[in-house]
């Protein structure tokens, strides 16, 4: 069994699920997503956040019900395969794997930007390899350790917010580029902000029995985590806008570091940078665990080579972990965080479109409101995916074409 870093043994209370879910969500999306969201929607960004919250809530509800019906790794994949079909399941799984790899690259690259901006790609590569090593030996951050890391993230964000509001903003700098000021960009902003909510599956659809909660505790922890993330994202965005203004925020690739300079608090930048980098490590580990869950389901159904499911002495699929880490290193080195985040969000939205479709059929004989939520989630996921940048959509299209062909070629089964 993997070793667990925790203070009181097996998780059993509803509150214990909060760091599991919120600790997976409160990461790179909060630090970076406000900038491209502001570029897409400008002052309409709050409506984009509301839409992203609704899409995430529907997806969380769908995965929770699927996990109840299909225990073990890849519950969403298993549900879609059973209710929608083999090809849709492979499309959704391929999009999920690609999205998680890109998400890992984004997290690692943001970590590198905070820790050592002059060598961010190299730091990102090292961080990814260290996290793969930690996952392979069975390290799992749970219980008291998860609360400590969550508190560190909140402290870093709190320091930034207090600094922004405590110092009068400087006059806006002309950017020479018109700011998006149209409701048309709301869905584009929502698609990017949706990335910030990724991580709820660690609670709604855990891959291991130790992370499973009673239904009421899981539901309570998920609701609290989603609302807390939305509040945190709102407060951080408000602080950034107060100091930078909408136009300057829209152009900033690293808004947290830039806002400290704008607020005449550059001396805090090293402290915030190190704190943010450390806080992102568990998020990176959580993304790898999510990748592993779907990949193991594909191995189980022989859509990936059975060799990939080979485990280490700690019981972890080390070949899957290494493959995910190497792919994420390549993305982190070659692609900047914002376009990589757009691609990750687009892939994951495609995945959740199929996930909601499977949940809608699963719940068709009862559970009226969860079924309606799945319908809404399916529509929102498609809408937001179609609102992403053209480059992200084209790259996602490649994934949803090549992925099913590759998995079908491995299994030599097409239905």
From TrEMBL:
Q: Which positions carry the signal peptide feature in this UniProt record?
A: none
Q: Where are the transmembrane segments?
A: 12-32, 44-64, 119-139, 146-167, 179-200, 221-242, 262-288, 318-335, 341-363, 375-406
From the UniProt record, which GO molecular function terms apply?
Answer: amino acid transmembrane transporter activity
Keywords attached to this Swiss-Prot or TrEMBL record, sorted alphabetically, are:
Membrane, Transmembrane, Transmembrane helix, Transport
Q: What is this protein called?
A: APA family basic amino acid/polyamine antiporter
Source organism of this protein record? Saccharopolyspora spinosa
